[in-house]
Specification:
It is built from 13 helices and 14 strands. It has helices spanning about 10-20, 35-55, 70-80, 100-110, 115-135, 145-155, 170-180, 200, 225-235, 250-265, 305-315, 335-345, 355-370, and strands at about 5-10, 30-35, 60-65, 85, 140, 190-195, 210-215, 215-220, 270-275, 285-290, 295, 320-325, 330, 350. It has a five-stranded parallel β-sheet with strand order 3-2-1-4-5, covered by helices on one side. A three-stranded antiparallel β-sheet has the order 6-7-8. The chain is an alpha/beta fold.
Length: about 375
């Protein structure tokens, strides 16, 4: 279709997405944006040069963007008029807390990702305010913890179009496990999955719903949950070990997952896939994506009410007790206790209007703990 794709945030994940986008034919224009002008321009040119090595010559440009300057962001959006915005911003990537001393990050892992929602919400909140104020016709794919961020913003009428990643990342490993056991090609395996981000981080011990078909035959009963989780986690193991990461883990698969959602919307594919945060809902669902519609596609045996309850229950495994009607995120008692005991950070409720303040407080706690 006509129109550009705007990638906001050129960290590790955003840079991967940009690299992939410059190698897709049929896109009118790609615009990269980041608050860091020098690094942003270098990364954008690297993507262009790399694409040229493979015979792709996309119309690609860079523009500086400080999302905290909402009026300036509005001007940029009105000038560029992107058909799709891919938001890959964060004040602290999810893997950074894994660089803390092992005994610290292992305790923090018990709290889940809920306590860290402000890191991903702060900039996304500013972006969505600018999108609304700009009044442009665009769609937003949010790559910044959509399981937690999208439902919070939804309470304020600022929900991105869709998220991605998270439980969608489990679909290829599930297909691999099934294909290897049944000795069939991976592409003949179909999976319908409902679950929160916590399903990934708990080794599939959080609540989820799954239906598996191989060659159009229902084989779900052949893969009981008590066995499926271990098999899938083994298939997707990154060899993290006990000392965590010193830098970004491999994220090409994650980038591909978000990119698929961007392209499904941009090219109006009406593609059936899995994504987080549709219509500001918590957790992940099977969805059909096109430019004008995000349809949650559930089998007859599962109602939307049941699916949303599975994800609400799963959110608790991520330290999220509830999201209030005004967008205030409430941590579980256990998550709040761990944050208090491990980092000395004593907040159980995160009001939306205080998101940036809370994010900066959390950044300071991490900095002090690493010192």
């Amino acid at each position: 279709m006509a129109g550009s794709i705007l990638v906001v945030g050129l960290g590790d994940l955003g840079f991967h997405i940009l690299q992939f986008l410059t190698r897709v034919t049929g896109i009118s224009k790609v615009v990269a944006a980041d608050v860091n002008k020098e690094i942003g321009l270098v990364k954008t040119r690297d993507a262009v040069f790399g694409a040229a090595q493979q015979g792709f010559y996309p119309d690609t440009s860079f523009t500086p963007m400080n999302l905290y300057d909402i009026d300036e962001t509005v001007e940029t959006l009105q000038r560029e008029k992107p058909a799709v915005i891919c938001n890959v911003t964060s004040l602290m990537s999810w893997w950074v807390r894994h660089t803390l001393p092992a005994e610290v990050y292992m305790k923090l892992d018990e709290a889940g990702s809920g306590p860290w929602v402000p890191m991903h919400l702060s900039l996304t909140h500013s972006l969505m305010q600018a999108v609304k104020k700009s009044k442009i016709d665009t769609r937003v794919v949010n790559c910044s913890f959509p399981d937690g961020v999208n439902p919070v913003l939804g309470k304020a009428g600022l929900a991105p179009t869709i998220g991605g990643g998270n439980t969608a990342l489990l679909i290829p490993p599930i297909k691999m496990v099934v294909a290897e056991k049944l000795k069939v090609p991976m592409q003949t395996v179909d999976v319908s999955f409902v679950g929160h981000h916590s399903v990934v981080t708990t080794g599939m011990k959080a609540p989820y719903w799954v239906k598996i078909f191989a060659d159009n035959r229902d084989v779900t009963d052949m893969f009981p949950k008590e066995k499926l989780g271990a098999l899938v986690m083994e298939a997707r193991s990154r060899g993290m070990g006990s000392t965590g990461w010193t830098g970004p883990p491999p994220q090409q698969a994650t980038a591909s997952c978000f990119l698929r959602n961007v392209l499904a919307i941009y090219f109006d594919k009406r593609e059936l896939l899995h994504a987080s945060g549709p219509h500001g809902l918590q957790g992940g669902y099977p969805v059909r994506l096109s430019y004008d519609n995000v349809d949650v596609v559930l089998p007859e045996e599962l109602t939307l009410k049941e699916a949303t309850q599975i994800n609400a229950d799963g959110a608790k495994f991520d330290g999220i007790e509830a999201i209030k009607s005004d967008g205030t995120l409430v941590l579980t008692d256990r998550a709040a206790q761990i944050m208090r005991e491990t980092l000395g950070y004593d907040r159980q409720e995160y009001p939306l209007e205080e998101t940036t303040t809370i994010a900066r407080e959390l950044l300071e706690t991490v900095k002090n703990r690493k010192a």
